[in-house]
Model the fold of this input.
Amino acid sequence: MEIHVVKPGESVYSIANLYGVPWQNIVSDNELENPDQLVVGQTLVILQGNRQHVVRRGESLYLIAMQYQVRINDIIDANPQITNPAVLQIGQVINIPSRNIRFGPIQVNGYAFPDINMEVLRKTLPNLTYLSIFSYQVNADGSLDTINDLPLIQVARSFRVAPLMVITNIGENGGFDSDLASTILGSTSIQDTLLDNIVQIMEEKNYSGLDIDFEYIYPSDRENYNNFLRRAAARLRPLGYSITTALAPKISADQEGVLYEAHDYPVHGALADHVILMTYEWGYTYSPPRAVAPINEVRRVLNYAVTAIPREKIFMGIPNYGYNWTLPYEEGSAAQTISNTGAVDLAYEVGSWISYDPISQAPFFKYYDSSGKQHEVWFEDARSILAKLTLANEFRLGGISYWTINRYFPQNWLVLNSVYDVVKVL
Done:
């Protein structure tokens, strides 16, 4: 795999010649709807396959390896006909192996809303270990609002992907409700009712496990939340169900704020099978423009997380979206969510070049709209995805988790499968 960054004057055809691959492969692999509309700074994933090099006068394996940026030993392994690596013949054809990085096995979770396009889901499921269907909203009496999740469960299982039931403390206003969580966490009888309802749904619909995503819990409810996790584990694990929790991205045990304080990393790490760190939303709807998941900020979270949670249980969150801010930024103004492919399309429409920030490891661009207002767009591309996957490997994490998979991003899956082997548990 190579990640090519488009330069001025380049086309799909010239890039294909550069790497010695059919241009049709670049178009189909990256799912380019308009291959003649490339943007300077746009990334293309090149799956090289088997290339061949014809030896010229004066060339050695060292020079050829340097040219293709592969190891000499890998060239030798791909060419058993080379009996004496020190002696090459002019005109000799040598197979050049692809320059793939292999990190090994990893578990992959993807969050999906029930209204996901089923074709997008089917295209995505080969890349997943778990499918977290978002979400069953908990009510104050321990009942659960219903969702149309059965079609997703059935399709997931047909691809050997384990479906996870997600429960949330999202209230009637559409946001995470601290009071609702406090009511549930403060009553063991309500928790018993809730767990009874969870087990009934999981049995009826053939779920594999539970994903608990309780957010904005009052700090005073921290131990109540820990006790609920203990009760959930005692109830569900003997029945063969896995338990996953989603946690705010903390950088220390004593980090202040209602988003963080009740999320007890060591307790979750001890009780849950997997812990999803929501390592995104540094750049968010009401923030100033910045990367959604800056790699330097994600690293700070992982630096703390691995001291409190077994690293094989940690799933690092990866965003599958970006934001479009209107400038100058004014506090309270809202950015518009944009897909990663949509961001590239927008850059082409407005005639912008895409830049890449080396600190946050994320792409961005600016432009002026038809009314003369300036915009700033941050999103994800093949480079930023590779940076995140490399970070997960550096910390030897057990998995990654995408929020969400509702919008299909071809380059993400190309990069993921080029560096990792996705584990299946069914």
In short: The chain has a mean pLDDT of 96. Residues 306 and 350 are 43 Å apart (CA to CA). Residues 188-205 form the longest helix (18 residues). The first strand starts at residue 2 and ends at 5.
